[in-house]
Specification:
The protein is mainly α. The protein contains 21 helices and six strands. The chain folds into two domains: about 350 residues, no CATH class; about 200 residues, no CATH class.
């Protein structure tokens, strides 16, 4: 399998989603396409519910550009369009549960017909050998299973970031399994949907600014279900059909349990209520964020078990899953009935972790280290610029173009902290790092090489940047969409243009350029004077590199 294509696919879907979600959010707010809170919902304000459009379009865009369309992938994409339209109509206009089911069944039939994907092998489910299904049973069973997964993802989408995070965990597990089994189609589709989902989750974590809606939950459930088939049904696969069931076990078992309870009470199995597992954790007194993290943890545990023991007989995996899940639900039921015995339940707070006294003290300490960030950054620029300013012929053109472009932006905006100027300076940081990498073997102090000096400076600077990212004050540090896009372009450049690396290692210079850029941005947000110092230093080094390279070629 081509790892570069998978990375490219992931990054394309990620950045497409990051760009589309804010635009969709603004459009939804203007049009009033929002989810209004009621007695069943945990949010208290109207929130746009069409984030699933960005997830689906980013996924389709990346796949259509970079993936060779085989019969199976063509079938999945065709069915995805049908389920996408079903969810979109429901989000924008609302449709009955019956019509929604008809749309789900239609999407499944399209994929089964076009892609030839259906469940014909259940593996060694009962310990008596592989169970094979005839076509007349396999197709109805596939419809039942896929529609079940679709609705499981739809029903677990009850808290900010819950359905998206559980799906990310599942997709990571699917991607690892696809690598282990050398299943390129499954790996490519998993990477594309993973990138689209992560880009959306940036805006969906608690407190959410946008929901995925039925467009997102139905599409994600549909693709996950057929990815499971793509992993387990091809001839010669080593992945048991039970393994994806365990990976998606939390939403699947929760849906089955809730529907069983509703039927036992002579209610419709599709009647909305607040009996899902996330509601139970909220009933225990856990706050929104902690509830989501607990369910993430359970999903992650089962994903790890599925990967580590994928070759264990299916009946052992199923039996273990059912026993452990039964114990879990029994324990949860007992705690709910005897809350007074578990005092730790009252310790969770709705306050943000960043409101705690310990966090504020840590933030104050890290803030006091800012002069050290400035000093290390200036030393790095000096060592990388003045000691490593020679490069290959013609290289001075690039640094000169970036220098004059940044100078023009600075003159035009009169603001050294302008986000577009800082984004342009990221390219300048890459150039400085690349030049230093090319000349890293040069001895500058005694018998110490330039690379050794730079590495000694980079280590504490990287540690300080990590601390600043973790312990930040509101507005102190963030990466906007422009920064993310340019970071992604640089990664693409390093991965997919290896010929640049022949002169001395662009891929080795890339992380140093990123660290240098982040350091400059941290300095710049402290005010106009620190921003002028950081920006001016980097521009001066770019000018030195340009002049020394130019004069060296004359």
């Amino acid at each position: 399998m081509d790892l570069k294509t998978q990375v490219f696919l992931f990054m394309t879907a990620l950045f497409s989603s990051l760009v589309m979600v804010p635009m969709l959010r603004r459009w939804a707010l203007e049009r009033g396409e929002v989810d209004v809170p009621d007695e069943r919902k945990v949010h208290s304000a109207a929130i746009p519910r069409i984030g699933g459009i960005a997830i689906c379009l980013a996924f389709l865009f990346a796949v259509l550009i970079f993936v060779d369309i085989s019969r199976e992938i063509r079938g999945i994409l065709a069915g995805t369009l049908v389920i996408f339209l079903t969810g979109l109509i429901d989000d924008l206009h609302g449709i009955s549960a019956k019509r929604k089911f008809l749309g789900e069944i239609a999407a499944c039939l399209v994929t089964i017909t076009v892609g030839g994907l259906y469940i014909h092998n259940l593996g060694n489910l009962f310990g008596f050998g592989a169970v094979s299904l005839p076509v007349w049973i396999a197709i109805p069973f596939t419809l039942f299973a896929v529609v079940g997964v679709i609705n499981a993802m739809n029903l677990i989408d009850g808290l900010d970031g819950l359905a998206g995070g559980v799906s990310v965990i599942a997709l990571c597990a699917f991607l690892i399994l696809a690598w282990m089994d050398a299943n390129a189609p499954a790996a490519l589709l998993s990477a594309a949907l993973l990138g689209a989902l992560i880009g959306f989750l940036k805006f969906n974590f608690y407190p959410a600014r946008i929901f995925m809606g039925d467009t997102g939950s139905l599409t994600i459930g549909f693709v996950l279900a057929f990815l499971a088939l793509l992993l387990t049904q091809p001839q010669g696969t080593t992945i048991s059909p039970v393994v994806p069931v365990l990976i998606l076990g939390v939403p699947i078992l929760d849906t089955l349990w809730v529907m069983f309870r509703r039927i036992a009470k002579r209610q419709s199995p599709f009647a909305p209520d607040k009996t899902h597992v996330h509601h139970k954790f909220l009933d225990l007194g856990f706050q929104h964020r902690f509830t989501v993290l607990v369910i993430y943890g359970i999903s992650l545990i089962w994903a790890c078990v599925s990967i580590l023991f994928y070759d264990v007989p299916a009946f052992w995996l199923v039996g273990s899953f059912l026993i452990v899940s039964g114990v879990h639900y029994g324990l949860l039921r007992y705690i709910l009935d005897h809350r007074e015995k578990f005092r730790f339940l009252s310790l969770d707070s709705s306050r943000s972790m960043r409101d705690s006294r310990l966090y504020r003290k840590a933030a104050d300490f890290v803030d006091a280290l800012n002069p050290l960030v400035v000093a290390l950054t200036i030393l790095l620029l000096l060592s990388m610029g003045f000691f490593g300013a020679r490069a290959d012929a013609g290289f001075w053109h690039i640094s000169a173009v970036i220098f004059f472009a940044c100078l023009g932006l600075l003159y035009y905006t009169r603001d050294p902290g302008n986000e577009f100027l800082l984004a342009m300076l990221f390219l300048g940081a890459l150039i400085v790092s690349f030049v230093a990498q090319l000349n890293g073997s040069q001895v500058v102090l005694g018998d110490v090489s330039l690379n050794r000096i730079n590495n000694l400076l980079f280590f504490p600077l990287t540690l300080l940047i990590v601390l600043r990212i973790v312990f930040y004050r509101p507005g102190d540090f963030f990466l906007n969409t422009v920064d993310i896009l340019i970071l992604g372009m640089a990664i693409f450049f390093a991965i997919f243009l290896p010929q640049v690396d022949t002169a001395g290692g662009f891929s080795a210079a890339l992380p140093k350029g990123i660290i240098l850029f982040l350091a400059i941005k941290i300095i710049a947000i402290r005010g106009k004077r620190p921003a002028s110092l950081a920006v001016g230093s980097l521009l001066a080094i770019l000018l030195v590199i340009s002049l020394r390279n130019f004069l060296g070629q004359v």
